[in-house]
Amino acid sequence: MIKDFPMPRLITTEYRTLSEIRGPLVFVERTSNVAYNEIVEILTPQGELRLGQVLEVDHARCMVRVFLGTTGLGLRQTRVRFLGDVARVDVSLSMLGRALDGSGQPIDGGAPIIPEFSLDINGLPINPSVRTHPSEFIQTGVSAIDGLNTLTRGQKLPIFSGAGLPANELAAQIASQARVAGGDKSLDSEPFAVVFAAIGITNREAAFFMDQFQASDAMDRTVLFINRAEDPSMERLLTPRAALTTAEYLAFTHDRHVLVIMTDMTNYCESLREIAAASEEVPGRRGYPGYMYSDLASLYERAGRLRSKSGSVTRLMILTMPDDDITHPIPDLTGYITEGQIVLSRDLHRKGIYPPIDVLPSLSRMMNAGIGESKTRADHRAVADQLYALYAEGRDLRRLVAIIGEAALSADDRRVLDFARQFEERYVSQGMTDRSMSETLELPGICCPSCLPNRSSAYLGNISKGITANDHRLCHPHEVAGLQSANRAGEAGTRVARAETRRPAQRVFANRGYGGRPFGCAAGCRRGRLPGLLPGQSPLPGRK
Amino acid sequence: MYDGLQRPLEVLSRKTGEFIARGVQASPLPEDKLWRFVPSLEVGSSVGPGSQLGAVAESHIIEHRILVPPNLKGRVVEIHEGDFNIHDTVAVLETRGEDGISRVEIPLAQRWPVRQPRPYQTRLAPREPLISGTRIIDAFFPVAKGGSAIIPGGFGTGKTVTEHSLARWADADVVVYVGCGERGNEMTEVLEEFPTLEDPRTGAPLMKRTVLIANTSNMPVAAREASIYTGITIAEYYRDMGYDVLMLADSTSRWGEALREISGRLEEMPGEEGYPAYLAARLAEFYERSGRVACLGGSQENGVPQRYGSVTVIGAVSPPGGDFSEPMTQNSMRVVGTFWALDYDLSRRRHFPAINWTRSFSLYDLREWYRGRVAPDWDDLTREALALLQREVELLEIVQLVGPDALAETERAVLASARMLREDLLQQSAYHGVDRYCPASKAYWMLKAIMDFHHRTQSAVQSGVPLQKVSALPTVTEIARMKELPLDEAETHIKMVMDHVRSGFAEWGVN
Questions:
Q1: Which residue in A7, A449, B7, B510 has the fewest CB atoms around it within 10 Å?
Q2: Does B254 fall in a domain?
Q3: What separation in angstroms does the CA of A127 have from each of A295, A299, B9, B28, B213?
Q4: Is the four-CA dihedral A373, A375, A381, A386 of positive or negative sign?
Q5: CB contact, 8 Å: A129 with chain B?
Q6: Where in the sequence is the domain holding B488, given as residue range(s)?
Q7: Do A327 and B320 touch (CB under 8 A)?
Q8: Is residue B459, in this structure, part of any structural domain at all?
Q9: Given B327, B344, B365, which residue is the final one in a domain?
Q10: Could you tell me if B360 and B394 lie in one domain?
């Protein structure tokens, strides 16, 4: 952390040499000693003080963008002062529980922040050689995320939403449910903080978030930065940077685990485009400036963990995909920088499924580092892959059914189709409930490997990776007999598989409760243990 | 480990803490460290550009050969054995120039402008594959040593994982990995993991053969533009010593965007999608710096053995929206020899590596090598397997239209075999302890077992055995587990599996 204070110049020159005002920009002539990105005070003819930032410096002319808009400025009467410093935000621990505007000034009517440090909001890149790899998972309480796209500390994960989809609800739910380490509810033992940056959101949304945070008692560990839709769009460029600077301060100076939530990045990009267009830059795709990737990266990359510090910065960004188009430049560039994405689906939302997370295009790149033995469960990856592959197949079959009808499917295919439906209705859909990791991984009828429709060699291959025959026996004695004979035949293969997996699976098994029903899961497995059920017969309820 | 300007990141972190402050300078090589230089020439020998003067043991697997810089020739008048730092003179040459005879001191370290390709004697045709340990690459779309390849794919299709596994397991002597505008956490993963992994060929930690250039996406754009050149120059430098070097660039699109950004700031006339008009030329220039060459310095007259080295360039491309028609992908495709198209669909099914076998191609003719080094029928097997996969695509189209019932039993058997090929051969887990690295010989036996099974299935089904019975054979499971067989017993066990297959089918009178 760079701990330096602004060095004010001894003499401040005031300019009255405006030559042009265009959109949010003013041009000042005959300037000297002006630096790029320097902060500027602009005194309007009415005596109002506005802030601006130097965007371009020529030998005797510079371009300034005005944060609060140029309305009311005149060429003659406006006075401009260059402050000799870049934009800074005052940070201190007393910011927790406060609501601030985009540049870090309190808007909740409380006292001003007494700064511990005054930090450059642009930050500096973290040296890659001192980062450590994210390796602890964060339990969000949402099955579709915890089970299939696990979030880890220090990760940056965006939520791709569409207009009208409940992304804000999901973000608020995650913010209030997020916990660290194995479903342990004693969150308070870990110093935790939420920095929430609202960029260009409506008053309704702002009120929603305020209510949510206050209702969940999370307010006193939360810093809110709010830039409303009616605030000048210039300030939108400052808001995320001020929030991130605060987050880095909390994480790396005060060793907190900080979760930064930003909504809505689309508004940020719109502002970026607005300013690029006003300063007559060469537009790139869809009119967004060519440097949007670098600009977004300079925001998104400010997440992670350091080897020498115990704090961390984890990021959740919400962005609205214009017209639900995932190839639009904003989600596209975001996806290339962030470590995965959570995609919300309008189809699921229409079916009344909350959260409407479409797991197929969703991805968490850090998942493998955060799961597995001693973190979640040894077979977590295998279970997730299995669910994923089956659900993908079920979705394919749905398309097929639309053409040829369900009657034309084979019995096996119908079971996969049924699985896809159950998966959406019981696994993805959970409302506002908070599911622990073990609940997510042991959801009856969905996660028990033997309850899944058996799909050829890949299925058995995955079982051998994650789940031992032993594990299998307790649910489905008949299938195990088949598996064992297969094992005997291919001893070489199973020897490897067993050596790798026997122990973890047994231990995990001992820990499992299955909701008071040891060694059987609610729907499928109890039926599976009924005498007379033949191998291949569906253990799912209501299916033959 | 360097950033895009070849500043060592460990040194920077000691200087400015966890964050990289602006305007810090650091020497790329440790200046005070002493290296043991052992000369291989004597005073009085005449040397040309690239002649080897001696060597320094950089690590126990890489012998760092000290060469005469490419622009010098003359006679050795002094050469010393001993411990030197990188700027100490180890030899003095007497050169004859226009202004008479002059003495040139040669230190251990060389400087070279990154944008200028290092010279070589002659270029050779790429004839030997770079064995990557990834089955779909080695079997179907190999890249030659000295070749170039691109991996385009939308986000989440596994570009970085593929590049990482290439960096880990490819049979190159030196690997230069350029993280160009990518994620900091991914670079950390490499940093934390490589020292713990063993090079399958030498047994040394992988880090010992790896140069990392990390220019994460929030570092300056100009450094990102330069990082690719820094990487390839280091690669060429090791090539000149006679090594096979693999250079991986992740991702070249970020480099293209850096070009675009700089070009935009310079207010140049934009070409397609805002990229500068010289994008294609720059890309061609860059990919053509790959190649297998006879290095400078070897000559028959002096009896100096000829050194051969190669630089293989593999670039990831991140096309916006996964759309391959954008300029970066198209311009790169024209100049590279191998194209691995990553596919959204496959990655969504968790089929990794998600290399699409219908869109990818390899222009290198490496059959000779495979026939000689792996198996004589390698070529036939791979061709047949690709044809089988192609047939599957056609059949699946029919299924999409009219449903699976319309297919004949033999066609359904084709689908079953193709599925086996996809799931049991092409799918490969980069995280599984054994499966992540598969040498060509194991890939061959796996392919052979599956194709053998396919042939027997076809004849069984034709002679009236129901497909269901074939699929229920216990050997199907064994085939699925071939991936996990340890490398040293793989061949014997796969032969055993094939015996089981044979006896299984023999019950129905099929052989």
A1: A7
A2: yes
A3: 18, 15, 7, 16, 12
A4: positive
A5: yes
A6: 378-506
A7: yes
A8: yes
A9: B365
A10: no
Percent of chain A with pLDDT over 70: 78
Do B361 and B227 share a structural domain? yes
Tally of CB atoms within 10 A around A438: 18
- pLDDT tens by residue, B289-343: 999 999 887 765 566 778 899 999 999 998 887 888 889 999 999 999 999 999 8
Residue type, A156: K
Q: What angle do CA A154, B157, B164 make, to 5 degrees?
A: 65
* Least confident stretch, A400-404, A446-450, B354-358, B443-447: A446-450
Among candidate residues B107, B133, B150, the one where a domain is terminated: B107
Burial of B196 (0-12, 13-18, 19+ CB in 10 A): exposed
For chain A, say whether B173 makes contact (Cβ under 8 Å). Answer: no
Q: Residues B96, B99, B104, CA angle at the centre, nearest 5°?
A: 50
pLDDT band at A9 (very low <50, low <70, confident <90, very high): low
- pLDDT for the residue numbered A67: 77
B389 shares a domain with B359: no
Q: Is B471 on the interface with A (CB under 8 A)?
A: yes
Kindly tell me the sign of the dihedral angle through the C-alpha atoms of A284, A286, A292, A297: negative
Q: Kindly report the nearest CA distance between residue B474 and chain A, in angstroms.
A: 5
The answer to whether residues B183 and B225 belong to one domain is yes
- The type of residue at B471 is S
Q: What is the CATH number of the domain that holds B95?
A: 2.40.50.100
Integer Cα distance of B348 and A398 in angstroms: 16
* Nearest-CA distance A303 → chain B (Å): 9
- Chain B: residue whose CA lies nearest to A458: B423
B9 in a domain, yes or no?
no
Q: Is the dihedral of CA A340, B153, B175, A337 positive or negative?
A: negative
Token reading at A452:
């899944």
Same domain, B282 and B313: yes
Q: At residue A471, does pLDDT exceed 70?
A: no
Q: Which of A309, A337, A490 sits opposite B183 (nearest CB)?
A: A337
pLDDT band at A481 (very low <50, low <70, confident <90, very high): very low
Q: What count of other Cβ atoms lies within 10 Å of the Cβ of residue A73?
A: 20
Structure confidence at residue A211 (pLDDT): 85
Task: Tell the residue number behind the tokens 């996806």, with chain if given.
Answer: A335
Task: Count CB pairs under 8 A between chains A and B.
Answer: 238
Query: B76 and B185: one domain?
Result: no
Mutate to test the interface with B, among A122, A127, A298 (most CBs of B within 10 A): A127
Note whether residue B25 is domain-resident.
no
Best A151, A279, A294 residue to mutate vs chain B (most B CBs within 10 Å): A294
**Residue A7 in contact with partner chain B when CB distance is under 8 A:** no
- Residue keyed to tokens 């029903």: A517
CB–CB of A403 and B400 under 8 A? yes
Worst-scoring range by mean pLDDT, A363-377, A461-475, B192-206, B288-302?
Answer: A461-475
* Domain CATH code at residue B228: 3.40.50.300
Amino acid at A134: P
Both B395 and B356 in a single domain?
A: no
Which of A341, A364, A102, A385 is closest to A241 using CA atoms? A102
The 3-state DSSP class for residue A192 equals strand
Whether residue B436 sits in one domain with residue B470: yes
- pTM of the model as a whole: 0.80
Q: What is the CATH number of the domain that holds B475?
A: 1.10.1140.10
Q: Which residue has the tokens 């992670």?
A: A304
Q: Phi/psi at B383 (nearest 5 deg)?
A: -65, -40
Total domains in the fold of chain B: 3
Handedness of CA B229, B231, B237, B243 (dihedral sign): negative
Quick check: B472 contacting A, CB < 8 Å? no
**B304/B300 Cα distance (integer angstroms):** 6
Question: How far apart (Å, rounded) are the C-alpha atoms in residues B168 and B436?
Answer: 10
Tokens of B30: 């440790």
